Amino acid sequence: MNHFIDVEIPNADLNRTLHAFLDAKDQLHFSELAFYHYQSFGGTDTDAAETLGAGIELLILAFDIFDDLEDEDSPDEPWMKINRSVAMNAATALYTISIKVISSVSKEPVFFEKLMEYILQSMQGQHDDLSNRPATEDECLDMIKRKSGALTALPCVLGAMLATGKFDPAVEKYAYQLGIASQIENDYKALFYDSKSDIAKKKRTLAYLYLSRKFNQPSIDLLKTFETEDKIADKEIKCYKEKLKAAGVTQYMYGYITFLNQAWTTLTGYSVEESLGTMYNDYFDHEERISNHLIAQLKNKEPEGRIEVLYHRKDGSKFWGEVHYKLYYKNGQFTSSLGTLTDVTERKKAEMELFKSNQRLAMQSQKLAMAGQLAAGIAHEVRNPLTSVNGFLQLMKAEYPDRKDYFDIIFSEIKRIDSVLGELLVLAKPHQVQFKKININSVLQQVATLLETNAVLSHIKIEKAFQHGEEWEINGDENQIKQVFINLIKNGIEAMPDGGKITISSEVEGDYVKISIKDEGGGISQADLAKLGEPFFSTKEEGTGLGLTICLNIIGAHNGEMKIDSELGEGSTFHILLPIDKGAASEENDIQQGCCSRATIK
Questions:
Q1: Distance (Å, rounded) from C-alpha 309 to C-alpha 120?
Q2: Interval 256-287: pLDDT, tens
Q3: How far is CA 116 from CA 59, 110, 119, 450, in A?
Q4: Which of 127, 253, 472, 485 has a CA that sits 20 to 30 A from residue 265's CA?
Q5: How do residues 338-392 score in pLDDT, each as one tens digit?
Q6: How far is CA 491 from CA 458, 496, 501, 507, 518, in A?
Q7: To 5 degrees, how large is the angle CA 423–CA 427–CA 431?
C-alpha cells in the first residue's frame, strides 16, 4: 500500500501524513476477504489479487477516517490528532488513490460499476446513520445493510469477479449478511464505550429501537437510561448488563452462553469455564442459512427446532454438530434457549460423499448428452455434402484417367472422414456392433504394424512385449477394440515430441486379459488424471477431449475397465482389462450398445 502512495503523492508532507495513517492500520480483514474469494473462485494471478486487496484497504482506511472525523471519536488515532481539514483532505487523497488502484486490476465495465455501486450504497447508509434517520428496526437493518453490508460485499464480490469475470449474486447475498452481523456486534460493544457511546449520542440504534417497544419493565428502564443519561458509570456496568439481558437486548443482538455441561468440553475441547459468557456463534462457521433459519424460527415463535452446524474445536479441527433446541418466550418476546449438541460428522461425510457422487454423475451425464448432440449434428451436416462431393469426384475420375493416383488418395481421405464421423456417433445414439471371438494379441499385432510407420517418422520405437501366437480370446467387436488401441498408441506418440519408446504388452489377470500401453512422455498430473475421460477435457492444446471418452464407451460396452498409472516426468501406462471369453458365447451376436454403457478410470 505504501508503494501506491509513493507513486501517486509526490507532495512530501502529505506523503508522510498518509504513511503515518497507514502505520496505524493493524488489520487487513477486507483484503483477506478479497484474496480468499479470488483464490476460492480459481484465480491464479497473485499480483492482481494483492493489488486489489491493497486498493480495498486504502478505501476502507479512507472511510474509517471519514467516519471518525464525522463521529468525532477514536481520539488516539493519528488523524484525530491533527487539523481536521488536513485529515479530511488526506482521507480524500486515500479515497482517490484507492479507486485508481482497484480500477487498474480489471477493465470490465461491470467491475467498476459494482465498485461504485457499493461505495455509493455505503455513503447513503452513512448519511442515514449520521442523520439518525431510522425510525423502525427494519429501517435500521436496511441502513446497516447499506452502510456496512455494502463495504463487506465489495471485497467478496470483486475478488470473485476478478477470478471469473462474472458477477455472482450468491456471493453478494451472503457478504451483505456477514457485514450486517459484524456491524450489529460492533453496535452492541459500542453500548459500553465512553468515547463512542450510542447512549451519549442518543442514536436510534437497533438496541434503542428494540427497547422502544416497551414490552417489559427492564426495557422501559433501559429506554429511560438511553434518553436521559450520557454514559454508564463503571460501578453500574454489571447491573446495566443484567438489564440488557432481562430486556432481551443481549439475546436480540447477541446470544451469550449461560450454561454448559462437561459433554461440551468432550466435543469441542473448550472448558466450561472459558466458554460461559461467550457468544453461542463463536464456535461454528457463520452461514446465511443458519441466520435465516434462526430468524424465521423466532419470527414464527416456534417452540423448538433442529439444525446441523459445522463447529470448530479448540485444536483447530472441525466437526458437524446436530443441535436440537427449545426456544422460550415471555410476553411474546424471545428470552432464552436450551439445546443439545450431537457429533454427526461421520453421517454428514457419508451424505456429502453421496451428494458429490450424484453431482459428478449428473454432470457426466449432461456432458455425454451434449457430446452426443454435437456428434449427431456434425455427422448430419458433414456427411450430406460429403456424399455429393464423392459422387462428383467419381464422375471426374473417369474423365482424368491419368490422375488416378490423386483420386485414390482423395477417396481414401473421404473414406477416413466418413469413418471418423462414424466414431463420433458412438457418443450420439445407440448403435449395433458385431460381437465375435477375437484373438487379442492378433489385434495388437495388426495395430502395431499399422502405426509403426507413424512412429518411425516421430523417432519412436514400438516394442511388442506380447506373444503373437498366444490364444487369449475375448468376445467383442474387432473394429472398436482396434480403435481403442489406435487412440491410445497415437496419444502416446503425441506425448513424446522428441521421440522415445512405446511398449505394448498383454497378460492374464484373473478372468481378464490386461493390455498395457506404456509411453515415455511427460506424464499426467493428479489433477488432470481425475478429469480424464470427461467429454471435452484434453491435456493437448488442440485436443477435442472426445478420444478417451469414446474409448471408455467402447471398453464399457465390452464389460471392461481402464486403469492409468502416471507421474509427471515419468510417462504414462494405460491398462485395459477385458473379460476373457470362456467359450460360452461362441456364436456371433448382434448386441445393442448405447452411450450410457461406459467404463470408468481407476
A1: 35
A2: 676 788 899 999 999 887 787 566 777 888 77
A3: 12, 10, 5, 64
A4: 253
A5: 889 999 998 888 777 767 766 665 666 566 666 666 666 676 677 778 777 878 8
A6: 12, 9, 13, 22, 10
A7: 75
Give residue 558's identity as a one-letter amino acid code: H
The sheet that has 333-343: what strands, in order across it?
Answer: 304-312, 318-330, 333-343
d(CA 67, CA 52): 23
- Residue 594's pLDDT is 38
Of 12-26, 90-104, 219-233, the poorest mean pLDDT is in: 219-233
- With beta carbons less than 8 A apart as the criterion, state whether 477 and 517 touch: no
Q: Give ∠ CA 379-382-387 in degrees, rounded to 5.
A: 110
Which three three-digit cell numbers place residue 559?
464389460
- For 298, list phi and psi in degrees, rounded to 5: -70, -40
Quote the CA–CA distance of 329 and 91 in Å, as a whole number. Answer: 47
| Mode of pairing for the β-strands spanning 318-330 and 431-439 | unpaired
Which whole-number Å values give the CA distances from 13 to 19, 65, 75, 185, 520, in the listed order?
A: 10, 18, 22, 37, 64
Cell of 467: 506373444
How far is the C-alpha of 400 from the C-alpha of 395, rounded, in Å? 9
- CA 431/CA 594 separation, integer angstroms: 6
d(CA 331, CA 217): 12
Q: Is 322 helix (H, G, I), strand (E, B) or coil?
A: strand
Closest by Cα among 340, 320, 345 to 260 = 340
Strand, helix or coil for residue 207: helix
Q: Residue 420 carries which side chain, given as an amino acid letter?
A: V
Helix (H/G/I), strand (E/B), else coil: 436: strand
The per-residue pLDDT for range 223-255, each reduced to its tens digit, is 887 777 666 666 677 777 777 767 767 656 656
Domains and CATH numbers, the chain: 1-190 (1.10.600.10), 347-424 (no CATH), 431-593 (3.30.565.10)
Dist CA 190 CA 170 (whole Å): 31
Calpha distance 562→548 (Å, rounded): 10
CA-to-CA dists, residue 229 to 222, 224, 233, 562, angstroms: 10, 8, 10, 78
What SS3 state is found at 430? coil
- At residue 589 the predicted structure's pLDDT band, cuts being 50, 70 and 90, is very low
